[in-house]
Specification:
alpha/beta; FAD/NAD(P)-binding domain; protoporphyrinogen ix oxidase, domain 3; Alpha-Beta Plaits; 7-stranded mixed β-sheet; globular
Length: 424
């Protein structure tokens, strides 16, 4: 049987960061795919550069950004002031208003603005915060019926592909753009639409360049590609792959948490773990589209997509380059061709394309995409993580932690875990 002190499962951001920051170089990284990167892979077609999905990087820790940049000296890093909008449906077609919705209700048609302001004021005045047992109740209690039903509920239900009453009230954590009544009224005269990712960076070569920066600190001989973990014997600390058995001292996994738990055989409540999957289309057209937009959100349930992103406006390119995201329940069958036809139809209805010709495309189904953070999942993850840690198994990252976080958060978590290992 082979022996390794640190067995790392997954060669995405979390796994590679763990290996990169480990002081002890006795490690092995297992990756089921044929290449590293996880969901941060980059695709190039016909002169277009796309990621598996829109990965625009926003760093809170300058030292991490500096560490990455130092390992990609030949890569031009674009710094972009984000311009994001909501395509608000009206009888005359979509009206584009600034994001976030709740801070820009004054841009709505007059009656919709009055409805939103009225319901917001009385929701706050009557103090309904005790009715916040789930995400949907939180939206109603803090923003009132109109803001909730005109944007926050339809958009997020398209994204998560579930009833928001199923989610914990803090399911989006710091990433949800909260605003109080004072903020909203002030914004009517002095715009301040800053969010956690108001400024983002993007490598000219795509998200994979950040992956390569991490991988530059990892011994390539210690990355086993196309090797899938199948089971874990917690008592013996033995991992079995589709090729071999490996005895480990510690195992760090970024695999989806429910899958990891199943591989250990631990008794658990499988119903606590639900998620959506997202079909992502990357589309390249023969000519330029609209300028001055990087993201747009679509609450209209008559549009198949919930979000679009404009790569060409990041690169200042002369051809329209989009990513398109469509949410599905985790057990739904995804008809790619039917979805593609619907996407092109809805892009025309929204005026995003007119007589544009599609010249290149790519698609991927991300499964899981967004995990559903619920009271049940929070409790079960915490309970099971304690058991796993007692057997030297640590589950990290967005999917390993069954959480909502940024790519930088994954690096921070991996760095901290590697430091803990060195200190122990």
């Amino acid at each position: 049987m082979e022996e390794v002190r640190h067995l790392i499962v997954g060669a995405g951001i979390s796994g590679l960061a763990t290996a990169a920051f480990l002081a002890d170089r006795d490690y092995l990284v297992l990756e089921a795919d044929r290449e590293i990167g996880g969901y941060c892979k980059t695709v190039r077609k016909e002169g277009f550069v796309w990621d598996y999905s829109g990965h625009f990087f926003h760093f809170k820790h300058p030292e991490i950004e500096g560490w990455l940049r130092a390992r990609m000296p030949d890569q031009r890093i674009l710094k972009v002031e984000k311009k994001s909008f909501i395509a608000y449906p009206t009888e005359g077609g979509s009206r584009w208003i600034d994001f976030p919705f709740q801070k820009n209700i004054h841009q709505l048609p007059q009656q919709d603005f009055i409805d939103c302001l009225h319901d917001l004021y009385f929701a706050r005045a009557t103090g309904q915060k005790h009715d916040e047992r789930n995400f949907k109740e939180m939206l109603y209690a803090r923003f009132g019926r109109s803001i909730a039903e005109k944007f926050l509920i339809p958009y997020n239900e398209k994204l998560y592909a579930t009833d928001l009453a199923n989610l914990d009230k803090d399911a989006m954590g710091r990433f949800f753009p909260h605003a109080d009544l004072t903020d909203i009224v002030r914004n009517m005269k002095v715009a301040d639409n800053a969010t956690y990712n108001a400024t983002f960076t993007y490598p000219e070569g795509g998200a994979i360049e950040y992956v390569k920066a991490l991988a530059s600190e990892v011994d390539p001989k210690k990355i086993a590609l196309e090797e899938r973990l199948e089971s874990i014997d917690l008592k013996r600390r033995v991992a079995k792959t589709d090729r071999r058995s490996i005895h480990f001292e510690r195992l760090v996994s970024s695999a989806p948490f429910d899958r990891l738990v199943r591989m250990t055989g631990l008794a658990h409540d499988a119903s606590a773990f639900t998620w959506n999957k997202v079909l992502v289309f990357n589309l390249g057209f023969d000519k330029k589209g609209q300028r001055g937009v990087h993201w747009a959100y679509f609450p209209n349930r008559d549009r198949v997509f919930y979000r679009l992103g404009w790569y060409d406006n990041i690169f200042d390119a002369d051809r329209l380059s989009l990513y398109v995201e469509i949410g599905f329940p985790h057990d739904a069958e995804v008809d790619v061709e039917a979805s593609r036809r619907r996407v092109l139809e809805d892009l025309r209805k929204e005026g995003v394309i007119t007589d544009h010709q599609l010249v290149a495309e790519h698609h991927v189904v991300m499964d899981p995409a967004y995990v559903h953070i619920t009271r049940g999942s929070l409790s079960e993850v915490a309970r099971l993580k304690r058991i796993l840690a007692a057997h030297g198994v640590y589950s990290i990252g967005r999917y390993g932690g069954w959480t909502y976080c940024s790519i930088e958060d994954n690096i921070v978590e991996a760095r901290a875990l590697a430091a803990d290992f060195s200190a122990s």
